[in-house]
């Protein structure tokens, strides 16, 4: 039986859900796909219809994510679900299960490794059997990290051959933008509602990967990028745990596909937040560890809930347009006597956690539609990652939006003022 709707935006009444709805409504290829919006409140959905100016061709679906029958009814005749309803530990599993059962494809914004580990264990095989493409983490966590690592590997393989093995891969983040109320709520939920042993298991190296790789560096107060000149300094990056796990899963999936697609057994990925100086990096790291210790205290979490934006709230349009991020990745071969290096740069214009995230998850859903409409063979289903599932097609889509620039080249360590 065919599917009636191409895309369903679940959680359309939230702040990011509204941005996604607006983006899809004004998309240059709008005539090529259909989409619907879904949420718990019929009144709030009606408000979104009025605010965005949606036409009668956009269906409005009332869904209770705590009711499995309601979820199944909503997703079974849809090609791709865009799920923005978090924290996913609370409300995501029923949606993934329903999508896997009904061969509905799925993308979300999950940064929760503990939840991703659970759905991999529970539904990866089911999604594989039904050829359902399930891709968590299709926003700022963790598409930029996955793409930056992928680009450098691709460049080295093009230069040196498809079975080239890559060793160290490091990404440096610089950005301007805010953290959403939903993201903060997710962090607090993890600390209060998820068993500590579950969090610990999900924080382990390669916790999401089907293959165990080489150990990655532990927390450092000062990070440096190998190879890049002048020397780049940085501090621990809050999102690195979520991002590294996704890149490691991409690596593991590609390793299982064979040496021509795999990154190589020596691949080790890390990332950090770029700072201007060694001292600044150290002080930032100290402040982060102090803040982490405070957040472990329940009175501090109570105060945070009072002070931070509530889920569904976000910055002004003007401030979102002023946001940006830039990631530089450098990767080196491990299979040659003299290492060869690649440097890749991913740049985006717009608030990373809001505006650009809405673009990334929307284009991921559209890339899945492209893939499924042109595939001649059986589609590989399962709990996948942006680069293991979509690769170049997603990069091309993002570039066409006009918000992204991608560069990748063989790099010779010399004084490079562009890195500053």
Automatic annotation (TrEMBL):
This is Saccharopine dehydrogenase NADP binding domain-containing protein. Belongs to the saccharopine dehydrogenase family. It holds the Pfam family Sacchrp_dh_NADP. The chain crosses the membrane at residues 279-297. Residues 7-111 form the Saccharopine dehydrogenase NADP binding domain. GO terms for cellular component: lipid droplet; mitochondrion; plasma membrane. The lineage of its organism: Eukaryota, Fungi, Dikarya, Basidiomycota, Agaricomycotina. Keywords: Membrane, Transmembrane, Transmembrane helix. It comes from the Eukaryota. GO terms for biological process: glycolipid biosynthetic process.
